[in-house]
Queue: 3 jobs
Job 1
Amino acid sequence: MTVHPPPGPTAVVFDLDGVLLESEHLWEECWTRYAARHDVTWTAGDTAHVQGMSAPEWSAYLAERAGGHDDAATCERAVVDEMVIELDGGGMEPYDGAVAMVREVAGRVPVALATSAPRRLVDAVLARNDLTSSFGATVSSAEVARGKPGPDVYLEAARRLDAAPEGCVAVEDSSNGIRAAAAAGMTVVAIPNPTYPPKPDAMELAARVADDVSSARREILALLDGLTTEVAR
C-alpha cells in the first residue's frame, strides 16, 4: 500500500508590524508623543496593553489615557497621520528580505495579511513596496469585531482566501499576535520581537521559532514542503 504524506499548508498569513515592517517602535513613539501633548506619560505597560489592538481599540484607550480631551477618532487620525509621514519620509522600511520572502511564498501558495494597522496605512505600505498584487487578501483588525488576541482578523483572512484556518501558516512577532493566530487554529511561525519580546505563554503556542526574516523564510518553506524538522526554542 502506498502511504502518502499529509498535505502541507495551503496558505500563509503574515502580520505586518514587526514581521514585514520595522515599525513597532514608531507606533510607541507616536502614542508617547500624543500622550505627552496632554501632559501624560505613556509607559511600557501602556504599549504592552495596546499592542495587537485594532485602531479603534487603541485609539479609545489612548484618548482616555490622555485625559479625554479628544475623541477616539480624532486621536486615531492624529497618530496615523504621523505614521504616514514616517512612511513617506523613509522612516518605515521593510526588514531585509521581507519583500522577497512575501513574493517567493506567494509564488507557492496564496498569501494574506492580517494586521492591526489601519487600512489607510496598510494600503500605503503595500503600494510603496510594490506588494499589493502579492496578497490575495489583506485584513485590518478594524474591519472585524475584535482585534488581537482575538482570532477574528486571522479567521477573516482565511475566509477571504477561501482557505481552512487549520491549513494556514501564520507569521507573527508579538504575544497577542501569536495568541490570535493560534486561537484561529493556524500553525504559527514566531519571529520574537527583540524590543517587545513575546510572553512565555504565547511562545508556547508557536510551532516554530525564527530568529529573523531569513530564518522565518526557511521555516515557512519547510512547512510548505512538509518537512518536520523543528527550530530549537
Job 2
Amino acid sequence: MARGRNKGRKVDGWVVLDKPAGMTSTQAVARVKRAFNAQKAGHAGTLDPLASGCLPIALGEATKTVSFVMDGRKVYRFAVRWGEETETDDTEGKVSATSDRRPDAAAIGAVLAEFTGTIMQVPPAYSAVKIAGERAYDLARDGDTVTLDAREIVVHRLKLVDCPDADTAVFVAECGKGTYVRALARDMGRRLGTYGHVVALRRLAVGPFAEDGMILLELLAEMSHNAAASGHDNLMEVLKPVMTALDDIPALAVNEQDAARLRRGQALFLKGRDAPVLTGPACAVSGNVPVALGEVEKGAFNPRRVFNLPGDPWAAGSNDKRTTDVDYS
C-alpha cells in the first residue's frame, strides 16, 4: 500500500524574514515552509530578487490575514545611481539611456516634495501589472512593447539620507500599496535632468512588521536542523501570532455561542444597548482567540474568513510587538 503524502504539520502564525538579496520571494517562502514543515505558507508583498529585508511570511491560518498586511504602509531604504536608466529600472536590465549630468544634494532635495503625497506613477515595464491577462514582465521579456497607464499612489515620506559620491544618492521612502521604488528612481532621475536606477534596495517595514523583528534565513535553517537532531523545537519562539496582522482592524468581542454561529458561516446581529457601533472590516474575537474576519453592515457582522485556531494566539512569540517604529536617519 502506498503511503499518504506528508503534508506537513499545522503551524499558524507569522515569520518576519530578513530576505537575502539574490533570492525570489517564492523561493524564500518555500525555504521557510520547509524549515517549519508547515502545511501552508504565503507572503505579504513580493520583494524583487535584488532586494533584501522585511518579507512577512504567513503560515497556516495566518494566510487568511495576508491582505491586511499587504494594504499596510511599507518602508524602504534604497540607493539610486545617476546617469543611467535601465530597461528594468534596476541593475538587472540593460542600460537604455545615459547622461553626464549629476545632481547635487540641494538639487535632489528641491524636488522631493513633487514625489511626496498622492501622485501619479507609471509602473516599470518589468512589473507584475497585468495587461490583457498577462504580466507586464512576461511581455517585456518576450520583446513586446509594454505601455502601462499611470496610476495613483501615495508616498507618505521621502527623505534623502546620504550622498556617498557624485553618482549615488540614498533615500528612505514610506509608501502605500502599489508603489514601485524603481519607478521613483526613474522619475526622479528624469526630473533632475539626468537618468537614474536602483542599485540597492532594502525593505525596513511592512504594516506591523519591522526590521527589529526580522530573522535571518540561515538562523531559521539552523534552528530547524537542531530541532530535528535534538527533538527540542524552539522554532515556535520566532513565530508571531496570527493577530499581529490585524492591529488596525477593530475587534468585536463575542461569546462562545456567537463564536459557534460564526464558525458555521452564519451572520451575527449586533443589537441591544451595548452593541458596538461599527461599520466595515472587523475581527470577531472570543477571549483572545480570533474567530472570523468579516464586515459589519446594517447592524450585522458577516463572516468572510473563519479561523481554526486553538488556544491563545498571543501565547506564541514572546518577543512580539504590536507597534512599528522605524528610524528614518
Job 3
Amino acid sequence: MSARLIDGKAEAAKLRGRVKDAAAALKAAHGLTVGLGVLLVGEDPASQVYVRNKGIAAREAGLHAVERVLPATASEADVLAEVAKLNADPAVHGFLVQFPVPGQIRQTAVIDAIDPAKDVDGLTPVNAGLLVSGRQGLVPCTPWGSLLLAREAAGDLSGLNAVVIGRSILVGKPMAQLLTNDSCTVTLAHSRTRDLPALCRTADILVAAIGKPGFVKADWVKPGATVIDVGINRIDLGNGKTRLVGDVEPAAAEIAGAMTPVPGGVGPMTIACLLRNAVVAACHQTGIAVPAGI
C-alpha cells in the first residue's frame, strides 16, 4: 500500500478562493472591508517570513492587512499597549501576535490581553472555552485546517478512533476537541503516554504534533489510517543546506491510507484558515451572517 498524499496546497487554494469571494460579497453588499492585523515583536527571520506571507495572503484575498512591528527590546507593557490599540481599531476585525515573543514578555499575558472577538488565533481562554462547550467561536487555525484535511481524506469522521500526539494549546488540545466535536473517539497522547506505539496503531486518524522530526515510526501506523503530520522541523543536511521534515517518518506512507506531506500539507491550510477566521470575526462583530462555504 502507498498512501494517497493529501494535497494541502490544493485544499488551501480552494479555501482561500472561498474567502476571497466572501470578502468581495461583504464589501459589495455591506461596504465591509475585512481587516486582519499581525503584531511582530523582534527580528526573528522565520517570524518575519511568516508575517510577510500572511500579509501577502490577506491582500490577495481582498482583506485590509495591518502589520505592526516592535523591536526585540520592547517591554511587556509596550506589547500590551499595542495589543490594546489593535483591540480598539475598528478597521481591524481580527489580529494575532506572532509567537514566540522575546523572553521578557509573558505569552500568557499577551494572549489574555487580546479581545476574544478579534482572536483569530483562537488562543484566548474565552475561545478555548467556547470550543470545549461546542459553541461558536474562533478556532485555532492549524487544528481547523488539519480537521478539514482529515475530512477530505476520510470523509465522515463519526465513530472513528483518533489519536493526537502532543498537548499544546495551539494544536494538540484544540485538535482533540475538534475531533471530539466530529464524533470521533479521541485519545490525547503526550510525552508520558505509556506504550505510545501500540496506542497509535489503534488510530483511524493519527495526528502528530509533537515537534520532533521523524518521531512517529512507520510501524506505529495502522494500515489504511489517515495521518495528519503537523510537524515542521528544519534539519541540517550539512554544507549549509537544510530540509523541512515532519513528525512522521516518510516510510509511514507505505502503510497509511492517506497522509499529509511536509511541506505542502498542513502548513498552507494554516494561513487559509487565518483568513477565514478574519472574515468570521468581521461578520460576528457587525451582525452580518457568515457567508456560506467558509
